[in-house]
Amino acid sequence: MRTPGTFATPATSRTSDSGAKGSGPKPLPETRSFVIGRLREAALDPATANPTSVGSLCERLAGYLEPAQVQLVRDAYECAAAAHEGQWRRTGHPYISHPLAVAGILADMRMDHETLIAALLHDVVEDSSIGTAALRERFGDSVAQIVDGVSKLASFFGSRAEAQAENFQKMALAMAKDIRVIMVKLADRLHNMRTIGVMSDEQRRRIARETLDFYAPIANRLGIHHIKVEFEDLGFKALYPLRADRIDRAVRAARGNRRELTEEIRQSIAHALRDEGILAEVQGREKNLYSIYRKMKSQRKTFSEIMDVFGFRVVVQSVDECYRTLGIVHNLYKPIAGRFKDYIAIPKVNGYQSLHTTLFGMHGVPIEVQIRTASMEAVAENGIAGHWLYKSSTAEFQSSQNRARQWVRDLLELQSRAGNPLEFIESLKIDLFPDEVYVFTPKGDILELPRGACPVDFAYAVHTDIGNHCVACRIDRNLAPLSQQLQSGQKVEIITAPDARPNPDWLTFVVSSKARSGIRQMLKLQQSSDSVAFGRRLLNRSLGTANRSIKDFDFRRLRRVFKQFGVRRLDQLLGAIGNGEVMAYVVAQSLLVADDASVSSVTVESGGPVAIRGGEGLVVSYARCCGPIPGDQIVGHVTPGKGFVVHVETCRNMAEMRRRHGGRDIIPAQWSAAIRTEFSTTLRVDVNRRKGVIAGLASAAAAADAGVDSIGVTERNAIISTISLQLSVRDRKHLAQVVRKLRALSDVVSIARTGS
Hints:
The protein is an alpha+beta fold and 756 residues long. It contains 30 helices and 22 strands. The strands form six sheets. Strands 3, 4, 5, 6, 7 and 8 form a six-stranded mixed sheet that branches.
């Protein structure tokens, strides 16, 4: 993909940022010698920006591709070179050098010929008159699909954030069809990052931040470690050049001081393994600059504390030797309790497998050891790309492929549920930073969840329907709150009910993107359904004053009424009434006049009271100013976006509304006899200031079987404090019991409900 690091000759006249065609000639902004000078100033090797020739690329490809496939790659190069003729990069090289470099990166990973062809052509659709149809005809459907998936959208967007979100959405859809799309995208971004030194400061920061936020985590999610590390280090150097330089200098200095001790530890591990007959490769493992910086920042550790840990990787022949090696190194050095992780038995979400242990080494230095097989090492370094790199069908590579494809399918599900591109990006960010916990289903299956996940996250991970209908859970056979954070090794069981629905409060504690998107989608559907049902009740109530109902109207004849209110269907009109966007009596008047041509106007009376059942969902809310509960005389008013808001009839806010508007918009209401839920109301309690008085109030409320939702304290004077006590009660009778319990406390001076 072309970045802001490209410019055009007057013949092509492209803008330097978006890749769109310019409206007029644009002079060449910089000479080649000036650009090379800037490259040197940026501490970049100009040769880095100049990729291999097509001849050397084809020589490398001949080592693993058929001659006919190599020829197709050469044909694609000729097509791309012609399309990019006269276009230059800011590095001073012809633009064709960029797609050639991208193909070279993918050739190092031994990708198939279709991926390489797509890499060479990935900017052709954007920057020339060649369209996707032409590519499909010449190079086939697969190549055209990959190129189309990588290409930027040409539409106009309101903001850069929205445009980038749209691009990621499109890429997710393309990935679902062909995972090779992301391979080309990653290689494209990698070459752009390698030549980022010639960008302006603002462009460098923006592109580097985007790389660290999205591309490095995506490479990590797909298990391509070497690309992830290079993304992080290049992004870190571009975003924080001074910090990166200081850490780099410190690492170089520390490496020299540590060389003897590192070699001594490495040889001791190798000798111990050789004595036990295990052939192994033992090598020191260095942290990359960005991981050092991130640990210093997140763990608040100094550089010396981070570098005090010596890392080693042991590569053996088989899984059995992995566990034997673990025993040998634990016998050689003392293990640190709680610092062992078995990613072989339970692989990471990207297919990574290894044993991790931390030891007290010689001279008391901590040692981190990773133990894995050669095939696990290949998966750890190349992830999903290992399939093409080794042409292997082993279980490790198949697992990596399956996990990558499952992640892409999950992305597609997120994309379909997202209300807009920015919501999709929010979900993607959550999904890209998984610090996993591993929990068990009742059948013994293992599920991977992000750290901090709760049973609701678990329920949605099992199946969306289970998440939508969960009501309770058991953790290790004990009942637990749905908001409780899960720990690795726990067994989780979800209890469901057919008529249960997601609670909006769940969004405050779920952490997985699948749960968050599932809850949002159900709440939207629930609100829509509830709005239609409640709007139907309100409209029938208004029509009832004229002895009519919705069933009496032939809405095919009354399309103009829909047009009057800006809707196309009856359900949309009812939903607008239920949401408070349209008043029911206004719609009723319009329907009655439109249905009877002899009537020029009609006045609809207020009608009977609306029955409040307590289960109307999101379209009925209860005013916080007065906290209505069953047994209160109630009224309501319809508010756009909130639906029907219920108040106590004597509420001061209702009195003010009657004074201002004459009470026309106030709707009588009554409680249904079948209410079985609890309602929130607030008591204002004046108490003598004394230690323990708040605990006494909470204890008395709990003794009366009332839930205490919140407690607020206001100091009136040196003797009296006013306590705001928000309670959950069933009805007025239950509230009276609570008040009696509270009045029995010696320090209670007075009690009153708020809003009355």
